[in-house]
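re: ur question from earlier - yeah i can do the single chain one, its not a big deal. heres the input i used so u can compare w yours
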Amino acid sequence: MKINPNELTLKDKVVFINRVAKVVKGGKRFSFSALVVVGDGHGWVGMGNGKAAEVPDAIRKAVERAKKDLIKVPLKNGTIPFVVTGHYGAEEVLLKPAAEGAGVIAGGAVRAVMEVCGIQNIISKSLGSGNPNNVVRATLSGLQELRSPDEIHKMRRSESTEEVGYAGKPAA
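and the output i got, formated as C-alpha cells:
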C-alpha cells in the first residue's frame, strides 16, 4: 500500500554515520554515508541510505529515500500483535510484544526503528554481526511480516469457506 509521505508528519532519526574514503591519485577523498529511519509514530516507518561529501547532505538524501518506501506496521496497544523474527543477510532480529510499562528493550539500531514507528513496549534481541544497516533491514523485514488480528481473522475465514473435496483437494 503506497501513501503520500507529505500527508504524514514524519520524524527522522539518524542511526549511523560512516566516513568512507575513496583512494585517488592524489590521496584519499572522503565522503559520508548516513543511515536514517523515518516514521510518524503511528505505525508508518521506512529506512534510507544517503551518501554525500557533507554530513547534512547525506542525511537529507537518506531521509528522501526513506520517505519513498514506507511500510505500515499494525500496532496493538503500543506494541506488536505477536512474536516475529526478521531476517536480512546473516542478521536476525527477534521482536516480542511486551506488557504495558515495559518500555523499549532494544539495542541502538532496533531502538531507533521502534521509536519512530511508535512502538512503546517491546523486547528485542539482535542475533548476528550487529552491522547497523543489516540490523535495521532485518527489523523492517520482521515488522513487514506482522498482520493485524482483523487481517488474520479475514484470511482464516476465507480459507474455511472454500469447499473441500476428496483428499483435501478443492471440489471441481
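The CA atoms of residues 64 and 93 lie 25 Å apart. not sure if urs matches, ping me
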